[in-house]
Amino acid sequence: MSTFWLVLLGMVSGTGAGLLAGLIGIGGGIVIVPVVFYGLVETGTSADQAAHVAVGTSLAAILPAALLSSLAHWRAGNTDFRFLRDWGPGIAIGLLSRNSQRHMCAAA
To answer: Contact at 8 Å (CB) between 44 and 58?
Structure first.
């Protein structure tokens, strides 16, 4: 795939992601992840590896915006740390127990 087509694909998918996010409130990852996935598969990357790279790339792109947004909400006094204090330990325990079960089942 030539550089021209990759740039064009990036512009179209970026515009589509922003349009969908603004109009119906879904995340841009619903557009970006498949575009990156199929772009990588087209260049010869295995499908298993392409899926991980596509999701990781989307996460790396979203993380800075999420951190800055969280900081802005915290500065404005709109962050409920009481919820995190009350629910955080239970969520962490559930997450750890679920992941340990999955790893035990995979090993069997």
So the answer is: no
25 three-class SS: coil
91: its two tokens: 């969520």
What is the pLDDT, as a whole number, of residue 12? 77
The pTM (predicted TM-score) of the whole model is 0.61
Task: Let me know how long the chain is.
Answer: 108
Indicate the domain borders of the chain.
3-77, 80-108
Answer yes or no: are the C-beta atoms of 31 and 20 closer than 8 Å: yes
- The Cα angle at residue 29 between residues 78 and 90, in degrees rounded to 5: 50
Angle (nearest 5°) at CA 58 between 75 and 18: 75
CB neighbours (10 Å) of residue 100? 10
For the residues 33-55, what does the mean pLDDT come to? Answer: 90
Tokens of 38: 């199929």
| 91 close to 84: Cβ distance less than 8 angstroms | no
